[in-house]
Amino acid sequence: MLAVENLLDQIHLPKDLKKLSPDQLAQVADELRGYIIKVVSSHPGHLGASLGTVELTVALHYVFNTPYDRIIWDVGHQAYGHKILTGRKELFPTNRCYGGLSGFPSMSESEYDAFGTGHSSTSISAALGMATASVLKGETDRQHIAVIGDGAMTGGMAFEGLNNAGVSHSNILVILNDNGISIDASSGALSKYFTRMTASKSYNHFRNSVWDMMGGNTSRHHSHRRFVSKMIGAAKSLISPKQSNLFEAMNFRYFGPIDGHDLHTLVEVLEDLRTIQGPKLLHVVTKKGKGLKEAEESPTVYHAPGKFDSKTGKLIPEGINLSLAPKYQDVFGKTIIELAKKNPKIVGITPAMPTGCSLYMMMKKMPERVFDVGIAEQHAVTFAAGLAAEGMVPFCNIYSSFSQRAYDQIIHDVALQRLPVVFCLDRAGLVGEDGATHHGAFDLAFLRPIPDLIISAPMNERELRNLMFTAQSPENNLPFVIRYPRGRGVTPRWKTPLEIQPIGKGACIYEGGDTAILSIGHIGNNAKKAIEMVRKTHPEKNFGLYNMIYLKPLDTGLLHEVFTRYRRVFTLEDGMINGGLASAVCEFAAQNGYRQELIPLGLPDRFISHGSVADLQKACGLDAESIARMLLQ
Q1: Which of 377, 433, 463, 573 is catalytic?
Q2: pLDDT tens-digit map of 404-430
Q3: 9, 202, 204, 546: most buried, per Cβ within 10 A?
Q4: Whole-model pTM?
C-alpha cells in the first residue's frame, strides 16, 4: 500500500483513526512522534514519557471505543499523544501556557480525559471505581483501562488498587508501561523484578521460538498465534515461576511482557484482551524518549528538557549569567553536603526526585547517606521517622504538593512522637506550567494546625542555608519544615557563614508610616520591589515590611510591635489565604484586641490554573505591580 502523506492531519478524533488499515498505523505513530518533538522543542513540556507511549496510544484509541471506553493515564506525563489524537492537535502548542491546554489529563478539558491526573499511582483505583459504577449502571460492555508507568507502580496506592481489584471481578485492564525509569532511574525491588521478568532468557527464547513457528509478525496463522500467546503465559510460570506470580498472586491474569513499540502486536493483543472478562494486566516494555536519540540516551534530562533543536535533539542553552542568583534547589544541594561533612548523623531522603531537588549532589559524594525510596511519599516520611528515632538527622526533601500524600505520616509518625525530621518542601507556592496538581498551595494551611511542628520559609538563599543549619543543630529537637519555591532566588552572593536563625523570630526589612506588610517566604521579595516602586513615584509614601520567616511559632513580639505602630496591615503569602499566615495573624489580632484594618494577600479560594509564574502571580494579585496598587489605595 502506498503511504499517504500527513495521515495525522486527517485524524481529528479517534473515530478517524479507526478508518485506517492496521498497516497505516505505523505511519500515524511516526507522524505523531514527530509532531510531539516539533511542538515540545519550542513549547517546553514533558517529552520523554510521551514519546515512549506513542504506539501504545495509537493502539488504544484504534482498538477501544473511546470516550465510552475509559482510558485513565497515570502520572499524566505519558498523555501528549492522547491529547493530540482526541481533538486537541491544533491547540497542542498552547500546552502548559496560561489559558491553554493543561499539561496533564483534565476532566474539564475533554470528555476523552476520563480522570484528572498529576500525581502518580492513582489510575488503578480510579479505573476500578469506574468499572464498579458501570456494573451498577448495567453498562457491562464498557471497558476500563488504566495505563500506569513512569515509575508509578512503586507507589503504595497502586498496590492498594491491585489488591482490591483482584477480588472484585471487575472488567478492568491494567497496562504496565515498563520503561525502567520514572524521572530519575527507578529504584527498589519492584524495578529489579520487572527487569528480571523482561530479561528472562529462558522465557524469551521459548516465546520467540514458538512465535516464529506460528508465523512471526506476518499475517499467517493469526488464530493459532492468539492461542499461543495465551499458552505462553502458562509456560512462563513453569519456566520461571519466581518471576511470574506477582500479579497472578493478586488474582490478575498476567499477559506479557510484549514490545510496546510493535504496533501490530499491540493491536492484536488488545483486541484479544477486550474479550477476556475480569481483572487483567498487560506488561508492555517501552523506551522512554523513543525516537529521539538524545532523549533515549539521557531520559532524565529529556523528561522535561526545556527548549531544544527538534532536528538534532540538542538542548538550547539558557546562557550563563554569573550575576544571576542560584536556584534554591542548588543552594539546598550544596548546603546539605556542607552540613553533612560536619555532622555525620545527617542523611538525605527523596521520593524519586534526586535531580529535581538537587539531592543528587550529595548522592554523588556520599551515596551511602542518600536514599531514593521511589515514588512513595508516605514511606519516605515514616522511613525518616525511623532514622530520627535512632538518632540520625534526616533531611526529607519532598515537593510541596506531593507532601499532601504523607499528611497522616507527618502527624502520627513524626510530630506526635516529636521526632526531629527536617522536611524540605521544594516547589512551594506557584510552580508555573505544571498547574493545579503541582502548585505548593496548601502546605502552610495544612501544616499549621499540627502541634510540635516548626514551620519556616526563607525570603532568600542565605536564610535557606541558615534555616537548614538551625534545623540540624542541637538547639532544635522538634520536626522542622522549610518551604521554598522552584527556581532562582535573589542573592547572587549567597554563600555566607552559617548562622542560627532564631526559632520563632522574624525581622524588620523596612520601617514605615501607617501601613505595613507582613510577609513569609520568597514572595516577600515582591513586596520589597513594590515598596521600592512606590518610593520612586510617591517619595512621600513610606511603608513598613516585616519578614516573618516562621509561621510557627509566630513572632508575637514582632506582631505586637506592628499592631501597636501601624494603622493598616497587609499579610502576604504564596499559599492559600484560608488557614495560612493571614489566618494566623487574624487570630493573633482577635486574641489581643487589636482593631487595625487587615488586608490578606495570597492565593484565593480556588484551584489555580497553569501558566508562567509571572502570569499566575499577576492573576492572583501577588506581583509587585499589583501589590504597589494595593498599597496606594
Answers
A1: 377
A2: 999 999 999 999 999 999 999 999 999
A3: 546
A4: 0.87
